[in-house]
Design goal:
- This protein has 297 residues and is α/β, with parallel strands linked by helices.
- The chain has a domain at 13-214: Spore Coat Polysaccharide Biosynthesis Protein SpsA, Chain A.
- The protein has eleven helices and ten strands.
- It has helices at 23-34, 53-61, 76-86, 105-114, 132-147, 167-172, 185-195, 216-236, 244-256, 259-282, 284-293; strands at residues 13-19, 41-47, 66-70, 91-95, 99-101, 119-121, 124-126, 162-166, 200-202, 208-210.
- The strands form two sheets. A seven-stranded mixed β-sheet has the order 3-2-1-4-8-6-9, sandwiched between helices.
- The longest helix has 24 residues, at 259-282.
- The protein is globular, with a radius of gyration of 18 Å.
Length: 297
């Protein structure tokens, strides 16, 4: 994996994977990265303050080409920035520890970037079966992506579960570390990149399967957190308020997937509204409190 390409001693790409307290999921992710068709890439795992740090270290040590960076538990935005700073490659690919990239994932991102793009997103698919909460969660995110598409096929939002860019882009536009939880920091980043004149291209071949482990309680807390994160995005002016049509289309899409998914999507939107209202009243202090309770679903 770490073989250099051409006359450059650096790997062609770095894959940055933030993780916290999910060693089994991380092991599946790293196994999928070990099966990539690309040969010249490194894997940088950033442990964002796991309670069982040794379990994470054991998983990383067993993965060829992977190295571990310890972070201070400040959230995924800070962990990604740390991973980018430690990366040696001119291209950085981002995914999450509960994602399984397809075998040509790194290669597909590299190919698209080599054709002149600066930022490339791939599809994130629901990876579970019979999991209504994970299905609903992914449907909401994918609807947000689809609604941001322009006539050329580019998007103005893509989640960090599947994103790649030249390293200088991440250096010029670091993630805003005032977002301490996994909520809103990706929307803020994409909005700033697009406002800076860059295009987020979509490469369908660079897919990942997202295996969220969500119960009803975890789904509710995740969606509340998304609502809290959205306040920061709105206050910064990075993203506008969604129209009623956006939500109607989301609900139609949810119920088209089945009554259980539709009901879960509706419940999720209620949770998002609760989180938004709580954060709007509480301000930044409320968002920082969230960091102490969860920086992952």
């Amino acid at each position: 994996m770490s073989d250099a390409g051409g006359g450059d001693d650096r790997p062609a790409a770095a894959v940055v994977v933030p993780t916290r307290d999910r060693p089994r999921s991380l092991a599946r992710c790293l196994a999928a990265l070990g099966a990539q068709t690309a040969s010249s890439f490194e894997i940088v795992v950033v442990d964002d303050g796991s309670a069982d740090a040794e379990a994470v270290a054991h998983v990383v040590a067993a993965a060829p080409g992977a190295r571990l960076i310890r972070a201070g538990g400040s959230g995924p935005a800070a962990a990604r920035n740390r991973g980018v700073a430690e990366a040696l490659a001119p291209v950085v690919c981002l995914t999450d520890d509960d994602c399984i990239p397809v075998p040509r994932w790194v290669e597909s991102h590299l190919d698209r970037l080599a054709r002149g793009e600066s930022v490339v997103a791939g599809p994130t698919r629901h990876g579970g079966t019979g999991d209504v909460w994970g299905r609903a969660s992914q449907l909401v995110t994918n609807h947000l992506v689809a609604s941001s598409s322009d006539p050329s096929g580019a998007v103005t939002f893509a989640p960090t579960s599947n994103l790649a860019a030249r390293a200088e882009v991440f250096e010029r536009y670091p993630f805003d570390e005032s977002y301490p939880a996994a909520a809103g920091e990706d929307r803020d980043w994409c909005a700033r990149v697009v406002a800076g004149g860059l295009r987020i291209a979509v490469e369908e071949a660079a897919a990942v399967d997202h295996h969220q482990e969500l119960s009803l309680g975890r789904f509710w807390r995740q969606q509340v957190r998304y609502g809290r994160g959205a306040v920061g995005v709105h206050r910064s002016g990075a993203d506008g308020v969604r129209s009623p049509g956006f939500y109607l289309a989301l609900w139609r899409r949810g119920f088209a997937d089945g009554p259980a998914t539709g009901a879960a999507v509706a419940l999720g939107q209620l949770a998002t509204a609760v989180g938004f209202a709580a954060e709007w009243r509480g301000g930044v202090s409320g968002r920082r409190h969230e960091a102490s309770t969860a920086s992952r679903p």
